[in-house]
Structures are given as C-alpha cells and as structure tokens.
Amino acid sequence: MKISSAISSAFSATRRVGNLRIARSSLIKSAHLLERIGLASVGASGGLYVGATLLRQKAGLFESGWIVLITILYGALGYYMGIDLSGNAPAQRSTSSISEEWNGSEPIEIMSAAGTFGAAIAATLSVSILVLDQNLPNGLIGFVAGCWVIGSSLQVAAGTMARSYEAPISEQ
Fold first, then answer.
1. In 3D, which of 109, 113, 116, 119 has the Cα closest to residue 162?
2. Is the pTM of this model over 0.85?
3. Which of 34, 71, 13, 50 is nearest to 140 (CA)?
4. What was the pLDDT predicted at 134?
5. Contacts from 146-150 at CB under 8 Å and sequence distance 24+?
C-alpha cells in the first residue's frame, strides 16, 4: 500500500467521522473543560510544592499536613478560575484592536496576570528550596506563602469578576 493511498484513506475516514455531526460548540466546550482541568492540575502541583516547603519548616501553623492539602486545593482553584480569561474577557471581544478606549476589563486581566505571576514565583521558589535542600529563615518562607496566597487569591478574584462581568451592549 502506497503512503499516498494510506493518507487519503485516513482523510476519508475522517470525513466519515465528520458525518457524525458533533456540534462544534460542544466540542469547543469539551476542549475548554480539558484545558481548565489541565490548568487546575498545574495549580495543584504548584500548591504541592508550596505546601511541602511550608510543612518542612515545622513552625506554628505549618506543622500540620493539612497545609499541603489546603495549598493544593487553593492552587487548583486559582489556576482553574484565573488563567485563560480570553473566552470571557470583554477586552478580547472589542471591535478594534488598536482602540485606546478603557472598557473596564483591564483590571481583571491585570489581576489575573499578577496572580499568575505571584503564584508562579511562589511555586518556583518552593521547588528550588526543596531541590537544593535549603533551610531558610522564616521571613523568606513567609514571603513564599504570601506570594502563594496573594497570587492565588488574585486569580480567583479575577476569574470570578471576568465570569460575572457583562459587557455593555454597543449600538451599531
């Protein structure tokens, strides 16, 4: 069997599968859900590293294993809610890409970006602390925890605001 005939038979099989008429919107929604689950997994893994770093300090609030579970869940929620607001962000639906008009969505996008940055910095510092087996002062560990809490909180807030924001209907 020639390669060209194998390729054409594969395309014809695709056409037959295409006749199932899967609604494009449901396919896009499924892909978006998979993307959100993947982002939540990234947030959870970052939370695992931050939680492990905090647990390793054995100081005060961080002595319990619950801190790891809390950071994992909060990281998953933050990344699920706050990253990739393009489907919901009104700025992406504007008619002109060059417009300098303030439409009110910029703070949401800035909050999401700042939250992602803060959470990513906390996760990166946590991984490096764990990998290099460093014993750091409580101030730096507090900084990591603060970056994680503030970053994840900004992500959750931005995601909530973007999903509840209703863009004004412009008359044409």
1. 109
2. no
3. 50
4. 83
5. 147/118, 147/119, 147/121, 147/122, 148/46, 148/47, 148/50, 148/71, 148/74, 148/75, 148/118, 148/119, 148/122, 148/123, 149/74, 150/115, 150/118
Residue 83 has pLDDT above 80, yes or no: no
The CA distance from 97 to 81, in Å, is: 25
> What are 60's two structure tokens?
């005060």
DSSP state of 170: P
Q: Tokens standing for 18?
A: 């295409």
Q: CB-based contacts of 143: which residues, under 8 Å, 6+ apart? A: 125
Predicted local confidence at residue 59, as pLDDT: 67
Contact 39, 84 (CB under 8 A): yes
Distance of alpha carbon 99 from alpha carbon 66, whole angstroms? 48
pLDDT value of position 164? 80
The tokens of 131 are what? 């990998």
